[in-house]
Amino acid sequence: MAKVRLTKNELKKQKDSLKMYQRYLPTLMLKKQQLQGEIRLTEIRIKELRAEKDNLDEMFKSWVSVFGERGIFTPDILKILRIKTAQGNIAGVSIPLFEGAEFEAAPYDLARTPLWLDIAVEKMKQVILLDLEAQIVEEQRKRLDHELRVTTQRVNLFEKIKIPETRGSIKKIQVYLGDQQTSAVVRGKIAKSGLEKAAK
Fold it and tell me: What does the alpha-carbon distance between residue 9 and residue 2 come to, in Å, rounded to a whole number?
């Protein structure tokens, strides 16, 4: 704790600081609650995306044998051209928002390829979209987590250090100034009685 000057100006400064801390603390606490709620929502969304992907993976298990047909299903059959994102803001935190992706399917001869290839390409798009969205939501959670840590540190700083320190300083200054005032009154009375004795 820094050394506090025992003056009226310092008392005013400490009272102003206390008002400021007490004014900002509820805002910080509200921000902390909002961040905690948003983090819970991102965690729920990540679980939903994983469950959807697991369902698609289960469905794909029945297709695995046809994917093995020579030369039909190759890794370059589907390319991601562009991932579409936007910027959002939650409690003052800039976060990415997933808006989809653009794909390009390699050209293939409809007469020579099996019918299931079209369905497989669409299902692959769905799986990739789920993975991409999960990555974006994970980034959101990471940014919100970081901001929550910073906000929690500020709340603790105000609640546990700054406000108690400032209250202690105010009390110390008030006691000192009260003692000085009492001392001045006593000195004044002594001087007055000394003057009265001298006048007699």
Answer: 16
